[in-house]
Amino acid sequence: MPPRKPTSANEITRLAAQMRVADPNVDNGAFSSLTTDDAMAWIMALGHINEIDPRMKTAANPQKQREIAIENLRRGLWDVQRFEYPGLIRGRTGKKPHPEIRAGGMGRQKLDGYKDAQRMASYVLTHFNLLAFTQPQMMEGLPMNPPKGRAGNWIGVKKIMGHAALDITAEGGLETPFVVYYHKDIMLIMEILDVKRVSWPEPGPKLLEQLKEAQESKFGARPGAPLVPMMQTPKIPLVVVRYSYMEGRPKDGAEFVLHLESRLREILPSRLSDDDVRVELEKHLTSGEEMPEEHIRMFARLLSHNADLVDKEWADDQQSHWNISKEASKETRISFFVPCLRPRFEVVEEIETGKKVTPHAQCGNCQKHAKTMCGSCFGVSYCSPDCAKAQWPTHKLVCKISKKITSDPSALPKDTLYIPARAYIHWVLDFGFASEQECVKMGGPPVDEPPRNQYGGERFICRALLANAGKGQWDPHQGKVVYYDKGLGTAFLHDRRRSVMVRLGPQEPAKARVHGVEIPFHEAGYRQFAQVMREKGMQGQLLYVYVRRVGDCIEVDLKDIPNQQGIMWE
Question: Is the keyword Disulfide bond in the record (predicted)?
Fold first, then answer.
């Protein structure tokens, strides 16, 4: 087959003229162009968010509504991309600069797709999907086939980021220093400037044991087995890019395209002619990955949002050290992207209520700012040892109230259920965390240790789910249905922040002993709870209840049930 004839300089000029780099500050790829409805839909898509805070309903005018929606969206977007990277984000330049960003570091050098391939591969966690998508999303195949509509756009954006992360760490090194995504006359080009692995805090001894136990219970690993890669501390890929959002076919071409040609020249063999380089440029510009228009536009808006966060001095420094012309730099912006998880539940609560989550920190004795907690029940805070000592005669009556469940259950108040707050196994369920470690780290307290009370003496709402109540199992030896749990099932309760997650039922004490933990069971209170659930719960299985922290237990109010209308969270 004869070699392909190089494209002429005139033809390259004509192709370049078909594209225009739209101004990212004013075009519909800019974050600032979002409407209120777009912002609200995006917030919902971030995960586990049902509505935006009440201020939306009382806003004086549509402009104020939009400001509230954008404010909440920015909060959610920052949280799903949370990381510490000194020097990059505006307002953090006072910190010690990252050695690979500032002068003398690799970030100041041009990345060679061949020479630096190993370095770049080591910087990026290629198992992107394990961090970006939840297990149910993976099982349903949503990352490969995002659903249509606004709900699927965020999944589509994460898909693009996943593909980009894989493209820049492809086996054999970078083919080009940029990636292209397009739909008809819309094109998004990202020039890769640098790639980092942003570390989460390394696990301490206690967390390491939690991870190993979760690995054994979740994946059936043998006791003492080393952590498998997906259970190790994830390294979050942070990709620094120069991007252009292209739209339309005006008369003049794009200076940025000429810059990309010069970048290609740097990594291609020196024996290639200028025409050969132009052929390569044409090939990569026209063979990018086609994505739905909505996905590309949302991703461009995410990049625009992140570009607003980048320190201007740092961005100017990046522009000036990559041999890019002033004309081309005007067509581009410096930004970044990272794999996105769902927002933390504290942030979800802030978005839905309009109030910043501030864990209770008042002294249980004098109401001053507390500094420590009771080391036995973690249910009450104190400002000093003197206050802890002064309140002990009163606090000791409830500090270990779980002991009364076994020793003197009749002394407990009526119309209440007492649940020991401490867990005996790790909850590694799908609570919006895409990685197992993330769930273990943020989804509950260590085994056999009560969580820290975030509400003081105030009551709060928990979501209660009763599973398998009244369902028995056929026993072939007895020839009948046997109710091993006395027909009462198993209950799961957790608050909106996931600071409390408990499970209880007739079978749970025996299961806890297998783990070496004693969990008392308040049988009389649980029977009344099951009855209330059947009478007032949704399909007899789901009910939101008032609870408060009493010592090392959660006290569930079985008489005063909140109005269920309008409460919807998982």
Answer: no
- Classified as helix, coil or strand, 262 is helix
Query: Can you read off the two tokens belonging to residue 59?
Result: 């806003």
State the Cα–Cα distance between residues 542 and 302, nearest whole angstrom.
37
Separation of alpha carbons 469 and 489, rounded Å: 4
Any domain includes 565 = no
Q: Is 47 helix (H, G, I), strand (E, B) or coil?
A: coil
Clarify whether residues 144 and 193 are in a common domain. yes
DSSP-derived secondary structure letter, 325 = -
pLDDT tens string 381-400: 999 999 999 999 999 999 99
pLDDT tier, 111 (very low <50, low <70, confident <90, very high otherwise): very low
Q: Establish if 326 belongs to a structural domain.
A: yes
- Encode pLDDT of 71-100 as tens digits: 999 989 988 876 655 567 765 433 333 333
Question: Angle at CA 150, nearest 5°, toward 147 and 151?
Answer: 55
Q: Give the β-pairing of 553-557 and 542-550.
A: antiparallel
Determine, yes or no, domain membership for 563.
no
Residues 306 and 438 in one domain: no
Do 290 and 389 belong together in one domain? no
Same domain, 273 and 160: yes
| 569 in any annotated domain | no
E strands within 379-488?
A: 381-382, 416-420, 460-467, 473-475, 480-482
pTM, rounded to two decimals:
0.76
Strand partners, 460: 547
